[in-house]
């Protein structure tokens, strides 16, 4: 079973939200007061962000922290479901 890394799912989700908002990394960096390099590392799933940093990024993207976390939770649930062993059902 492959390990699901929350930081990877979080990074992918933040990148998707940023692109949907039509924002550049630089724009989100300036709006959130998170350094460009650190934001890039978060989006690539290389760094884990604190709740304060996530709040700032979510706010810059125009979403609530609860919306961000709900989206991430849903994606993790899908990944987990794909990894569950298939159980044969007797007829």
Please, could you describe this protein's structure?
The chain is mainly α and 91 residues long. It has helices at 6-20, 25-32, 36-43, 51-61, 65-83.
Low-confidence stretches: none
Bulk shape:
elongated
Strands, count: 0
Count of DSSP helices? 5
C-alpha termini separation: 28 Å
Q: If you compute it from the alpha carbons, what radius of gyration comes out, rounded to the nearest whole angstrom?
A: 16 Å
> Which range does the strand content fall in?
under 5%
Could you say which structural class the secondary elements and strand pairing correspond to? mainly alpha
Main sheet attributes: strand count, strand direction, barrel closure: none
Q: Helicity range of the residues?
A: 55-70%
Task: Report mean pLDDT, rounded to a whole number.
Answer: 93
SSE sequence, one letter per element? HHHHH
Please outline the helices and strands.
Elements: H1 6-20, H2 25-32, H3 36-43, H4 51-61, H5 65-83
Helix pairs in contact: 1-5, 2-4
List keywords for this structure.
mainly alpha, elongated, 91 residues, 67% helix, single chain
Quick description:
The protein is mainly α and 91 residues long. It contains five helices and no strands.
């Amino acid at each position: 079973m492959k390990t699901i890394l929350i930081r990877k799912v979080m990074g992918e989700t933040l990148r998707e939200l940023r692109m949907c908002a039509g924002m550049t990394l630089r724009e989100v960096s300036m709006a959130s007061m998170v350094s460009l390099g650190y934001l890039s590392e978060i989006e690539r799933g290389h760094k884990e962000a604190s709740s304060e940093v996530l709040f700032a990024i979510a706010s810059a993207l125009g979403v609530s922290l609860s919306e961000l976390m709900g989206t991430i939770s849903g994606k993790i649930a899908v990944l987990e479901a794909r990894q569950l062993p298939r159980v044969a059902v007797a007829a």
